[in-house]
TrEMBL record:
PANTHER family: ODORANT RECEPTOR, ODORANT RECEPTOR 19A-RELATED. It comes from the Eukaryota. GO terms for biological process: signal transduction. It is found in: Cell membrane. One of its GO terms (cellular component) is plasma membrane. The gene is LOC107264841. The lineage of its organism: Eukaryota, Metazoa, Ecdysozoa, Arthropoda, Hexapoda. The chain crosses the membrane at residues 32-56, 76-100. Pfam families: 7tm_6. InterPro entries: 7tm6_olfct_rcpt. Keywords: Cell membrane, Membrane, Olfaction, Receptor, Sensory transduction, Transducer, Transmembrane, Transmembrane helix. GO terms for molecular function: odorant binding; olfactory receptor activity. It is a multi-pass membrane protein. This is Uncharacterized protein LOC107264841 isoform X2. The keyword Plastid does not apply.
Amino acid sequence: MKCCLDKMTTDCRDIDPQDHMIMKENVNIGRFLTMIYSATTFGNTFFYIFIMPNFTETIVDDRNVTLRSLPYPSDYYLFDVQFTSAFEIIYFIQSLVAYITCTIRSGTCSLAANFVTHACGQCEMIVTHINDLVDGYREELNTLDNRMRDIVQHHSRLIRFVADVEYIFNKYVSWTY
């Protein structure tokens, strides 16, 4: 994962002024996707943890004991969950675990969105370089061979970056979902 982040840092540092706007647009798209996913995930978790248990039907058993529902109900054989302090402790632990899970998933989604939008920005830059190759706008690389070499090297780096990202998400991150 560090190698992918290093490649992103290098790509952003070694960028031409003409390509800066392309990368800036893609960074904003990645940030927007991260905000949407995080807001949706945390909002749904808040709704599920705090709102849903209050709207579920309360059950009163034959001993006149009110049975409250937990966000993640399960059978607890060692102790009675309906006992006040046990219920509150279990409720807090379930809420904490849910928000830790949301944080991990939001971070993973943010990482994926930033990697993907970085790769898309690099693809757009390659397309711009190819168009410039035909039109001849890039004057600093005055020969056709130098411009073609730059495009091929950039494309090769992009393919390695995408392969590294795919390896990371298939091997290490796929267990998150």
